Amino acid sequence: MKRKLAPKYQFIGIWLALIIVLFVMFGLAHFNFAAVGTAVILVLAFVQMMLVLSFFMRLRTSPKVIRLVACVGFCWLLIMFVLAFSDYLTRQWH
Amino acid sequence: MPEQTPTIEQQFEDLPQQYESAHLGMWTFLATEVLFFGGFFISYAMYRHFYEHDFIVGVKHTLILFGTINSVLLLTSGLTMALAVQAAIENRINVIVPLLLVTIFLGLGFLACKGLEYRADIDDKVVPGPMFDPALPLHTQIFFWLYWGMTGLHAVHMIVGIGLLSIITAMTARGKFSAQYYTPLELVGLYWAFVDIVWIFLYPLLYLIGRHS
Fold first, then answer.
1. I need a labelling partner for B77 at 20 to 30 A (CA). Which of A13, A72, B113, B188 fits?
2. ipTM value of the model?
C-alpha cells in the first residue's frame, strides 16, 4: 500500500522537541510556582502526548476513521473522569 | 531477500481495507488500554485531591534522577521505533533490524534503571504495608501504592512490548516484511508508542508535580 513519506529529518526533530519539553518540565518542577506550575507541567505532558500521537503513531496522516477511534479512547477516559468526580466531589466526605 | 507480497484474506475487499481493519483493531485495543490505565489515573487524581499534602511528601521521596533517565530512554526508543516503521515504508529493509535492536536495548535499559530504582525505594522503606517508613504521613502510603501499581503495570507493558519487538525483529530478519507488507511491524510500533505515552504522564505525576512546593 502506498503511504505518505515523512520528511527526512522530521522524526529527529520531533524527538528533539520531546526531549526539550521534558527538560523544561524537569526545570519547572524545581521552582515553586504553586498551582500554575502544576498546570503548565500537565499541559507540557499533553503537548508531548500529541507529538507522539501525531508523528510517532502517524495519526496526522492516518485515515479519518482511525483518528476518530483514537480520539474516542480518550473521550471515554474523559467521561470516566467526569462521572467519577461528579460523584466523589458532591459527597459529604468528612 | 524475497519480496513479500501480502495476500488478501477472504473477508476483505482489497488491500487498503485489510490494512485499515488491522489498524482499526489495534486502535480499538489501545482505547481499552487507555481505560485500563485510566482506573489508576482516576484513583491518583481523586486521592491527590483529598490528600494533597501527603501526596506532595510522596513526590519528594521518588527518585527523580531515575525517572528522568527513564524518560529520555523511552522517548528515544519511541524515535527508533518510528524510524524502523519509516524504513519499512521506504523499503530500506536492511536498517529495520538494527533500529529494532536499539529499541529493544533502550527498553531493557529502562527496565534495568527501574529495577535499580525499585531497589533504592525498598531501602527507603516506601513499600506500603508494615515495613512503610513510620516517619512519613499516613496517606503517603496511598501515593506509594499508586506509584508501585502504576509503574509496575507500565513495566509489565514494557516487558510485553520487548517480547513483541523480539518476535518482529526475528520476522524482519527472516525477510517477512517489505514495503508492500509490514503491518505487524507498524502495529507493534503503535503499542510501543502507547507505552511511551503512559510514561509521559507517569513522569510528571510521580516525580515532578509539587516537588518544590
1. A72
2. 0.93
